[in-house]
Amino acid sequence: MITIQQVKAARALLDWKQSDLADACGLSLTAINNLERGIGSPRVETINAIRQTLENVGIEFTDGEGVRKRGEVIELHVFEGSRFITLMNDYAFPYLKASGQSLMCGIDERRFVEYGKEEVKRYDDFIRQNKVVERIIIRENDTYILSDPKAYRWVPEGLIGKVPYMIYGEVFVLIIWDAKKTICIRNASLTDSFHRQFEFLWSMGRGLPSDVSRALSQPDFYGGS
């Protein structure tokens, strides 16, 4: 049986909204929404209908929770447990270095500090040493930032989803903080789709006020833990 992660990944590959999948499967939007949120236990008939519909439009489901368009490979890695951010960075850093650009959307950087300041420092050192350009979309009026204020734009909260994501070259990353889980998907079509979404939100955003400064510049930042 296909997994929730595979359904989400397949929908993203097709650039479909939940309503598009619901219409194509002959299911209600509520049914699709509940399925992707893990609410309740979906019937086997529902899962089979979704799988058949997605396969009919060119999606293939592979071993290890993989998903791809016919003729196009998608690589999926899920990192869980106490080291989920560290493991994500270990995997994603080579792609981040190769692309020279880090795009983040919906990030609450307090969560990275809660995870561990050592990993914050490792990421910051990596970004600077490899001259990676950052662009970060955060919720309007959020003033807790870890990078150069010029790298940020505020966007109204209603335009940002609850699950933050990053784009590191050809790798798309989702962070599910409460579950201590990161999902890394390497696929050009998927990252291109979310890159377009990111650029649209970036164009709507506004820069941070001049009095906002990065937390890392505070003398006691690393001394606190």
The major sheet is characterized as: 7 strands, mixed
Number of domains: 2
The strand count comes to: 9
Spatial order of the strands in the main sheet? 3-9-8-7-4-5-6
CATH architecture of the largest domain: 2-Layer Sandwich
Principal-axes shape call: globular
CATH homologous superfamily label of the largest domain: Endonuclease Chain A
- Residue windows where pLDDT falls under 50 for at least 5 positions: none
Task: Output the radius of gyration.
Answer: 19 Å
N-to-C SSE string, H for helix and E for strand:
HHHHEEEHEHHEEEEEH
Number of contiguous helices: 8
Which bin fits the share of residues in helices? 40-55%
Tell me the CATH topology of the largest domain: Endonuclease, Chain A
Question: Helix/strand-derived class?
Answer: alpha+beta
Question: How far apart, in Å, are the first and last alpha carbons?
Answer: 45 Å
Assess the beta-strand content as a share of residues: 15-25%
CATH class of the largest domain: Alpha Beta
Mean pLDDT: 91
Characterise this structure.
By secondary structure, this protein is α+β, with helices and mostly antiparallel strands. It has two domains: 66 residues, Orthogonal Bundle (434 Repressor (Amino-terminal Domain)); 143 residues, Endonuclease Chain A (Endonuclease, Chain A, 2-Layer Sandwich), CATH 3.30.870.10. Helices cover 41% and strands 20% of the residues. The strands form two sheets. Strands 3-9-8-7-4-5-6 form a seven-stranded mixed sheet, sandwiched between helices. Strands 1-2 form a two-stranded antiparallel ribbon. The mean pLDDT is 91.
